[in-house]
Design brief:
- The structure holds five protein chains of five kinds.
- Helix content of chain C is 47%, strand content 12%.
- By secondary structure, chain C is an alpha+beta fold.
- Chain C has one domain: Orthogonal Bundle (Cytochrome-c3 Hydrogenase, chain B).
- By secondary structure, chain D is mainly α.
- Chain D has three domains: 43 residues, no CATH class; 291 residues, no CATH class; 43 residues, no CATH class.
- Chain D is 67% helix and 1% strand.
- Chain D has a two-stranded antiparallel ribbon.
- Chain D is globular, with a radius of gyration of 25 Å.
- Chain E is mainly α.
- Chain E contains seven helices and five strands.
- Chain E starts with a helix and ends in a 26-residue tail after the last helix.
- The chains are: A alpha/beta, B alpha/beta, C alpha+beta, D mainly alpha, E mainly alpha.
- Chains in contact: A-B, A-C, A-E, B-C, B-D, B-E, C-D, C-E, D-E.
- At the B-D interface, helix 1 of B face helix 3, helix 6 and helix 10 of D.
Chain lengths: 183, 200, 395, 467, 281
């Protein structure tokens, strides 16, 4: 795991931004927990700093912590940024916790244009709004879709535009929780 | 269940077609132009079927891009809720002697995505009247040709005048209108044909 | 080479290269605002093949998700399987209690089938681009060659397109007995065919002028927009996961990486559609060399499946009691670029979060940036040059 | 006589044995004008569909259409002939007839060759519902196919099919042919605009741009030939390409001078663009415009458009043969054919022209399955910046050759065609006419290759330079 | 500038000519019939399909005799296209009374075949479903009228027997019987492979057989225990008396209450023939 967030990168970032903490996932994978406020600053710092040069956003995704067996059970949505530097060939993982009540995380599409599509997908599937994103709209689900599917408490719709979802007489044991409101 | 048990072929349903109808039906049978409608994995098998090894052009089937010139719509691949309206519009833009073949489990009944997916339509016969269902995921090009051979049985009995034999027919012998009695949209409703061209 | 929209009245026509369109590879809808023949702005519209594969990843168990990785990218299903299985193995091995190791022969077979599938995937990509530009015959020759690979895979694992062959811990079946010389025969015959294919398309000036300096992406732009794989290497960035972050036995094979250098000569520029196309062709030649190298490295088959050297599958089922908690991010080089799996496990039988980042997703991201001021006919050629597969975008 | 053209008057006079009455005239008109179209052009255009798919299949290493035999039409014929018998009896008789040894093999051959396929396609199009989309302009939409067909068939009346089989022998035949083929432009535009859909509008616009800009090279190419032969009457041009002796091939225009050879090439390429054939078929580009101006057409209207396209190909083939390849003259020895009686000479000459036309037809199809499609601006660039300059250079070259040749000597009479003056280049002159331009051209090409000829090493590796 | 123009024209002509030559060679090769290995067109309806390899993943088939209804395939199938019920027969072995595979939902991934412990589930090489091409009869089953119809064992044997023969060979009465049960317009394409439910008499007889066997086993166990106790008693008197009562106490207790044959002890009865199996995921 050394290349993931080795101490050199962490110390450099911590020196610059005291609010950032270096944490370890359950299997020891290190990442930087960044508060929502100075995400954009950290991102800009990581991209422009000579010794770091994280010029590529490998992946920007999120996962719902609702049912995750973490010690203080939290219902936030963790937005994960996986960065890579083609120059120094090292990686770093940033995480930002967006509370379920008002999920808003500043957009990083200013730093990496690739984030435009990633953020639209996270908004579509998780409902995390990214203020500052030029065209934040649903990318995967139809535009009049209700609810954000990848949340753990998502209820599957019964029908769409009046056409039933399941086939008649079709029943699954242990089927997904249904009952969401149908557009 | 051999050929003569196909619907319409049974003794009681023997129908005498006028000579001209029979000749026209022979023409239709040997030149089914299929609409290029490849959405997912079955689309690749549809391309392979058009390729040199299985060569559906040998059976007189050419891929046509516009629904106006196509007789047969092969729905090859997964149809999601967002795409379903387009399938319906394309089917309406096709000119009259038209047939629909549902290729692959995704089109038959939602296949791998029927249980856990929220966005996949479980079977396209909720939107368009399907004539032939071809099981498989993806079905081999030979299974597709097997399905087309079964469709030819029906094309043979197409009568220009009179009621069309609309019962959907599963290539696996007797027809199984998948989810037959779920809410079937009435296909005769005349949707205002937007002037929009071939592509929906 | 971009032409500014020039009509005085500025009146634009919005065209709907709709979800059903012969050129787009599958159901990608592009709303093009064109001024006569010249494209002013173009906004792609996705989601027509969104089959919620990531949600399914959270509902089904670990090994049951492998058939769905086939359907994430059905043109190169072996590479998709491999990406997920390597990520799952790494997550399992992050817990010191699980001490299984993938047998050597299994690793060799994995690389062999991945490279064979890369050849057949690039064949579709290159053939479809030629067909979009109008040359129908090379596309059919590409499809004919693909049948050769389909036969080998059909004998190997029973299916032609969705293999479900690579499993967590190795591969499902061992090579069938006549596999090695059949693969060799196919590779030799395939190399001769590629020469004819290139004479027909690559050196054809009509094709070259159609793609030269169209939709040029500079190296910095490619990195910023997150392009990967042949699209990235086409813009001159010398980066390949098989060589720079080797997994499996790629480290021992010494992968040579082709990079785009304005192949179209006077008319072309680094990073244009023609460069990406030629990089894919050079990668096909490279994959042929890799397949032959792996066939030498292949250890003889052992009787037991989980024999560390000659076996092909470490039986993970028994050795892993409970999957560990934690997360992992692994990237592998799929034909359309880096396929990165970010897995989060909460210790239960089903994964907590499966995130699959694919090359086509960011390639689609750059469309509206790249397709300004080009011709309507070029929109199709550019889509072909980025080689996008719609389920990779929509997942 | 009464102005119907030599062939009709001669035939009518021969039939009526003196002053032709109206019956003789009608029969003559039918025989001379209608028969060549019905016998020579129509079946070839219909067979074109099958030839196209069979050649495509051969090139792409697959089996072309081979499942529709002639048993369908045969059965229909039996049904009609034996209408008085009950159906079961008819079937038995038909089955018995099919089991006869020659009939069975004939049916099998027709199935393998796919002869039944174009019957099946035609019949299916009859049974297809041809609709007029709501947004379309009815009259324009319905009229377009017939105009396209007319534009394709009309120029055939000036093409000489044989010594005694020429519909219209006017002084302005070449001009007439080019002018009339302009109707196709109007027809395609009507189809494009009439269909009321964005795709066909774009297709229509592209078709007009392409056709109009390729009329110019065709006109210049024909102009070059007219400059060389001195007359615009196609029959006289064919007559002028007459060369007594075994190698009558040497009389053909294309062999006279390299400039005429380039004009022939330019005419062929512009002809390809004229009938929307690949690599110029961007107007009905499958992949971009769904299928261009005939997106909205279905059923028989679309069939008519396809027929018009194939007839246009035949027309280009016929004009190319007449202007450059000696019309209906046979390449080896022409005197004995001219001497034959009329009823024998006409079919032979017709067949020779037919062979030439079909070869051009096949080459066009061969090109279709090889070359990719041009883009709009490349088509325009090719026409204005490449073909037109080549025409101008060739005409300049021809003029210089004519000046160098000095006076003209009276040519030999060719059957009915009176002898016409020809530039007198005896064999030394011909040699110079060929050697000088070719030499200049060759050294230019070598200089250009030295200056711009580098090919990227990776491309050499791809095409098997050094693997 | 002129040279660039000339070079473009010459290069265009050269590349087009080389392209034409390549397609020309394809044309000649194909007409002469040696089109290379990859191109031999397989004329499917005329020639039979060439299904290569012996691991072909065609349609699923279950050999009901070997199936122990352990639901392994049910849990591992991502699409849930199995519907199975089990009953215990005479010698306490589970027997697949209803085993339906919904082939319209199956994705032919082969996970169930790998998971099946007794290898009763296997995939055939057949993909053709139209009997005109002689799709194997035992694979091709008619659709059931309802998804959850209940077939008794004798009915199921008759169904298997009748469905195996071609339709013409059936007598009118058989055909009527078959059509009554299997309706052509059934809901799903289902492969029916169960052995059928027991009729009430068969069920009673199977239970009785099981009881008898259990009783015999209990009696044997009791006898063995008695013999062991006797042997222990013989060995016990030698050592000091103190441990004896403890040892004596324990063995004595179980032996004391003679196992009442009538009341089956709660612990021993095997899982009833409930259709439940291991918990679904």
């Amino acid at each position: 795991m050394s290349a993931v967030a080795n101490d050199a990168i962490a110390t450099a970032v911590l020196a610059q931004f005291p609010a950032v903490q270096q944490k370890h996932a359950d299997n020891g994978r290190a990442f930087l927990l960044v508060p929502k406020g100075d995400l954009v600053a950290v991102a800009h710092f990581l991209r422009t700093q000579k010794s770091l040069r994280f010029d590529a956003l490998m992946d920007l995704t999120a996962y719902d912590l609702l049912k995750y067996p973490s010690t203080p059970p939290s219902d936030d949505i963790a937005v994960v940024y996986l960065l890579f530097s083609y120059q120094h060939r090292h990686k770093v993982t940033l995480k930002v916790l967006a509370p379920r009540a008002e999920c808003e995380v500043a957009t990083v599409s200013g730093e990496w244009p690739a984030a435009l599509y990633f953020e639209r997908e996270v908004f579509d599937l998780f409902g995390v709004r990214f203020p500052g994103h030029p065209s934040l709209r649903r990318i995967m689900t139809p535009d009049d879709w209700q609810g954000h599917p990848l949340r753990k408490d998502y209820l599957y719709p019964d029908s769409y535009h009046g056409v039933a979802h399941l086939r008649d007489g079709q029943h699954f044991e242990g089927s997904p929780p249904r009952g969401g409101d149908t557009p | 269940m051999t050929t003569d048990e196909r619907p319409g072929n049974r003794a009681d349903e023997q129908v005498h077609m006028a000579a001209v109808d029979e000749f026209l039906a022979w023409g239709k049978e040997h030149s089914l132009f299929y609409l290029l409608f490849a959405t997912a994995c079955c689309g690749i098998e549809l391309m392979q079927a058009g390729g040199p090894r299985y060569d559906v052009d040998r059976l007189g089937m050419i891929p046509r891009a516009t629904p106006r010139q196509a007789d047969l719509m092969i729905v090859a691949g997964t149809i999601t809720h967002k795409m379903a309206g387009r399938v319906r519009t394309l089917w309406e833009q096709m000119t009259e002697p038209r047939w629909v073949v549902s290729m692959g489990s995704c089109a038959n009944s939602g296949g791998p995505f029927s249980k856990w997916s929220y966005s996949v339509l479980n079977g396209i016969d909720k939107y368009v009247p399907v004539d032939i269902y071809i099981p498989g995921c993806p079905p081999r090009p030979e299974a597709l040709i097997d399905g087309v051979m079964a469709l030819r049985e029906r094309v043979k009995r197409y009568r220009t005048v009179g009621e069309r034999d609309r019962t959907p027919y599963i290539v696996a012998g007797p027809e199984a209108p998948f989810g037959g009695h779920c809410k079937v949209p009435d296909f005769t409703a005349k949707k205002p044909d937007g002037g929009g061209g071939g592509s929906a | 080479m971009t032409i500014e929209a020039s009509t005085p009245s500025g009146e634009r026509m919005t065209l709907n290269m709709g979800p059903h369109h012969p050129a787009t590879h599958g159901v990608l809808r592009i709303v093009v605002e064109s001024d006569g023949e010249v494209v002013a702005t173009c906004t792609p519209d996705h989601g027509y093949l969104h089959r919620s594969i990531e949600k399914i990843g959270e509902c089904v168990e670990w090994p049951m998700f492998v058939p769905y990785t086939d359907r994430v990218d059905y043109v190169c299903a072996m590479n998709a399987n491999l990406a997920y299985c390597i990520a799952a193995e790494k997550l399992l091995q992050s817990d010191p209690a699980n001490t299984f190791v993938v047998p050597r022969r299994g690793e060799c077979i994995r690389v062999l089938v991945a490279e064979l599938n890369r050849i057949s995937s690039h064949l579709v990509a290159v053939g479809a681009m030629a067909m979009d530009v109008g040359a129908y015959t090379p596309f059919l020759h590409g499809i004919a060659q693909r049948e050769g690979v389909n036969d080998i895979f059909e004998k190997l694992c029973g299916q032609r397109l969705t293999y479900n062959y690579v499993t967590i811990g190795g591969v499902a079946y061992d090579l069938y007995d006549t596999a090695i010389d059949e693969i060799r025969r196919f590779l030799d015959q395939f190399e001769r065919e590629m020469v004819r294919f290139n004479k027909l398309v690559t050196t054809n000036t009509i094709f070259r002028d159609r793609c030269a300096s169209v939709a040029t992406v500079s190296a910095a732009e490619a990195i910023a927009w997150g392009l990967v794989g042949p699209n990235l290497r086409g813009s001159g960035v010398d980066f390949d996961l098989r060589r720079d972050e080797p997994y499996g036995i790629y480290g021992e094979l010494g992968v040579q990486v082709p990079v785009g250098q304005a192949f179209a000569g006077r008319k072309g520029s680094v990073g244009d559609a023609y460069d990406r196309y030629v990089v894919r062709l050079l990668e096909i030649l490279e994959s042929i060399r890799l397949c032959r190298a792996v066939l030498e490295l292949l250890p003889p088959a052992a009787a037991k499946a989980n024999d560390p050297i000659g076996g092909w599958q470490a039986d993970v089922g028994k050795q892993v009691k409970r999957p560990p908690k934690g997360e992992v991010h692994v990237r592998t080089e799929a034909p359309r670029g880096e396929m990165g799996y970010f897995l989060v496990s909460d210790g239960t039988k089903a994964l907590f979060r499966v995130r699959c980042r694919t090359g086509s997703f960011t390639a689609a991201g750059i469309f509206h940036h790249v397709m300004r001021g080009i011709f309507l006919a070029d929109v199709v050629a550019v889509i072909g040059s980025f080689d996008i597969v719609v389920p990779e975008i929509d997942r | 006589m009464n102005g119907f053209g030599y062939a009709v008057d001669a035939l009518a006079a021969w039939l009526a044995g003196g002053e032709p009455g109206w019956i003789a005239l009608t029969i003559a008109v039918l025989a001379v004008w209608v028969v060549p179209i019905l016998l020579l052009v129509f079946p070839i255009a219909a067979l074109g569909q099958i030839l196209e798919r069979k050649i495509a299949a051969a090139i792409q290493r697959r089996v072309g259409p081979s499942s529709a035999g002639l048993d369908g039409p045969l059965r229909f014929g039996f049904r009609v002939l034996l209408f008085f018998l009950p159906r079961a009896r008819q079937d038995r008789i038909f089955a018995a007839f099919c089991n006869l040894r020659p009939v069975r093999s004939l049916l099998l051959v027709s199935r393998r060759l796919g002869l039944g396929q174009f019957v099946a396609d035609g019949i299916k199009m009859l049974g297809k519902e041809d609709i007029v989309p709501t947004g379309a302009d009815g009259i324009v939409f319905r009229l377009a196919p017939y105009l396209a067909l007319a534009g394709a068939f009309l120029p055939f009346c000036v093409v000489p099919f044989g010594q005694h089989l020429v519909m219209l022998e006017t002084e302005v035949a070449a001009l007439f042919a080019i002018a009339v083929s302009g109707i196709v432009v109007v027809a395609l535009k009507m189809a494009g605009w009439g269909s009321g859909s964005k795709w066909s509008l774009l297709g229509g616009m592209r078709a007009v741009a392409q056709l109009v800009s390729y009329e110019v090279p065709i006109g210049l190419a024909v102009g070059g030939v007219v400059l060389w032969c001195g007359t615009m009457d196609l029959h006289a041009i064919v007559g002028q390409q007459y060369e007594p002796g075994v190698f009558s091939l040497l009389g053909w225009n294309v062999v006279q001078s390299p400039f005429l050879a380039t004009l022939a090439a330019v005419f062929f390429i512009a002809g390809l663009a004229e009938c929307q054939r690949s690599p110029f078929d961007m107007a009905e580009a499958e992949s971009e415009l769904v299928s261009g101006f005939n997106t909205e057409y279905s059923g028989l209207r679309w069939g008519l458009f396809a027929m018009a396209e194939y007839t246009e190909m035949l027309l280009i083939g016929a004009l190319l043969a007449t202007l450059f390849f000696g019309g209906y003259q046979s390449p080896i020895g022409e005197e004995w054919i001219v001497g034959l009686p009329v009823w024998l000479e006409v079919p032979i000459h017709g067949a020779i022209l037919g062979v030439k036309v079909v070869t051009v037809f096949l080459v066009m199809m061969w090109i279709r399955w090889t070359l990719p499609r041009f883009r709009v601006d490349q088509v325009m660039r090719l026409s204005w910046l490449v073909l037109v300059p080549m025409c101008l250079v060739s005409m300049f070259g021809l003029a210089v050759t004519l000046l160098a040749a000095g006076g003209t000597h009276a040519g030999e009479a060719f059957g009915r065609v009176a002898s016409r003056p020809r530039p007198d280049l005896h064999w030394l002159g011909h040699l110079a006419a060929w050697a000088v331009p070719v030499a200049i051209g060759a050294c230019l090409v070598v200089m250009a290759k030295k200056k711009h000829g580098q090919v990227h090493p990776a491309l050499q590796r791809l095409t098997g330079g050094r693997s | 500038m002129i040279l660039a123009w000339i070079h473009d024209v010459v290069e265009a002509v050269q590349s087009c000519v080389s392209g034409m030559r390549t397609t020309g060679r394809f044309l000649v090769e194909n007409l002469r019939g040696e089109g290379g290995a990859m191109s031999a067109t397989r004329e499917y309806p005329e020639q039979p399909a060439e299904v290569v390899g012996d691991r072909q993943r065609g349609h699923l088939v279950n050999d009901a005799d070997r199936c122990i209804v352990c639901h392994a395939c049910d849990t591992v199938c991502p699409v849930d296209c199995f519907k199975m019920d089990g009953e215990r027969d005479g010698d306490n072995k589970m027997r697949a009374s209803r085993f339906d595979i919904d082939l319209s939902k199956c994705i032919y991934c082969g996970l169930c075949v790998r998971a099946c412990p007794t290898d009763s589930l296997s995939m055939t090489r057949t993909f053709e479903m139209d009997p005109q091409h002689e799709g194997k009869r035992f694979l091709f089953r008619r659709n059931s009228k309802q998804v959850d119809v209940r077939f008794d064992a004798p009915e199921m044997e008759r169904l298997h027997a009748l469905a195996a023969q071609p339709r013409e060979a059936l007598s009118a009465e058989d055909r009527a019987w078959l059509d009554a049960r299997i309706d052509d317009r059934g809901q799903h394409l289902i492969g029916i492979y169960g052995l059928g439910f027991f009729t009430p008499e068969q069920k009673a007889e199977a239970d009785a057989a099981r009881e008898a066997k259990k009783k015999a086993k209990d009696a044997a166990a009791a006898a063995a225990k008695a013999k062991a106790a006797a042997a222990a008693a013989a060995a016990a008197p030698k050592p000091a008396s103190v441990p004896a009562p403890a040892a004596g106490a324990t063995p004595a207790a179980p032996a004391a209450p003679p196992a009442a044959p009538g009341a089956p002890p709660a612990t021993k009865s095997g899982p009833d023939a409930a259709s439940g199996g291991s918990p679904t995921p």
